[in-house]
Each structure stands twice: as C-alpha cells, then as structure tokens.
Amino acid sequence: MTVNLKSAIILGACLASTSTLADVVIDLPKDVQILVVNGEDAGYSSFGFDYKENLTLNDGLNQVVFRVSKVVIESGNKSTKFKSKPLVATFDSQNSNLAITLPNIKNLQSGYDFDSDPSFDLVVKKGQLDYFEKGQLRTLSTFGADFVQATENFNKSSEKASVANFSQQQVVTEVKREGNVKIAQSTSDDQLKLLFLNKTPQEKQDFLSWAIQNMK
Question: Which of 92, 68, 28, 64 lies closest to 154 in space, CA to CA?
Fold first, then answer.
C-alpha cells in the first residue's frame, strides 16, 4: 500500500468525525435545510427547526444534500409547510466563500413547479469554484426517509452530480491532458475520501481494519 493511499485512508477516517480544519464556507438561504453532508446524516430536524446561516467544510471535493423547507400559501389565507425533494450539490473548491441561491417559493403550486424543474445555483463570493454539478435525489421528502441511503444510491448512478460521474469526468480530463488514463493524485484522494464517507459505519470499520492489516 502506497504512502499516499495510507494518508488518504487516515484523512478519510478523520473526516468521518467532526473536524475543525475547514476552509470552504457556504452561506445558506433562510429556508434551506441541510440533510446529508459528504455521505453523513447532517442531524436535520423532521420539523425543520434546525436552520443554519452557513455550512463550513474542508477544502476539496464536497457534496451537500439539502431541501427547501418553508411555510407557503396553499390557497386564500390558508398556509401549509412545503418541503421540496432533496437537492444535491457536488463541488470542488479551495479556501472560498460560496452561497446557495434559490428562487423565492411563495405558494404551494410554485413549490410543485420547483420540484418538477428544480433551479438553484452555487455562487462564488470569495475564492473560486473548480467544479460544480447539481441534481435531485430520487426519494420523497417525507418523514422517516433514508436520505443517506438515497445519497449512496445516487452516487453510484450516472447522474451529473454523482461521485461516479465526477470520477468519469476526471478520467476524460486526464486523457485529454496527458494522453493516458492516469488520474491526478489529489483527485484520486478526494474520490477516496468521499467514497469512504458514503459507506455505512460497519463498512467503514471493516475497511479500516483491512487497511491497517495491509499497511506495509
């Protein structure tokens, strides 16, 4: 096992727990609820009382799954709670300040329209954004939904914001640049970290046990 792979495994294990080393800050609209961050449950509230003004992440490749959760007009003076289908933002950025931007959903019908054709962006307030793709999870935004599992399934698909697609795009880029299928080490490490974070706790433990036994 190479030194770089050992380092990636150790770093991946560290990222699975709370980290204070983070250089990418994402400003969040008032009605955004974070569901999954890099394959991990974000500890969201089913009642929607967990709003955060921003989200702080490590430099490099990150993936955030979120939804719009807000009170909208249903009809006349009657209001109801709208929760959008989960949205996915997969991006690569270093030492930056980004912001999620969304259309202003005022009534239930505009919420349904948004679910049918979601539109959001990740804008740069400081620094730069090297890679960004967005998508939507194939799961209902209902009580008890397993968003972590849905995210794992999404990342194995050919969706533009999936990890599988990111890996494929990087291979194509390197083929054009170098004339072979060698992936840059930093990109390979980022993929390994994100794939590790999308594993279940038991799968992480099994992988780390295997890695420790094979460190030579």
Answer: 64
Cβ–Cβ under 8 Å, residues 111 and 82 = yes
Per-residue pLDDT tens for 175-215?
455 554 444 445 556 666 677 766 677 777 777 767 766 66
Q: Which two tokens mark 188?
A: 């390979």
CB of 119 within 8 A of CB of 103? yes
Rounded CA-CA distance 107/105 in Å is 6
Tell me the C-alpha to C-alpha distance, in Å, between residue 88 and each of 7, 62, 96, 162.
28, 11, 19, 9
Which residues are 87's β-sheet partners? 66, 136
The pTM assigned to this predicted structure is 0.71
Other beta carbons within 10 Å of 181 = 9
Q: Are 56 and 129 in contact (CB under 8 A)?
A: no
Label each residue of 25-85 as H, E or C: EEECCCCEEEEEECCEECCCCCCCCCCCCEEEECCEEEEEEEEEEEEEEEECCEEEEEECC
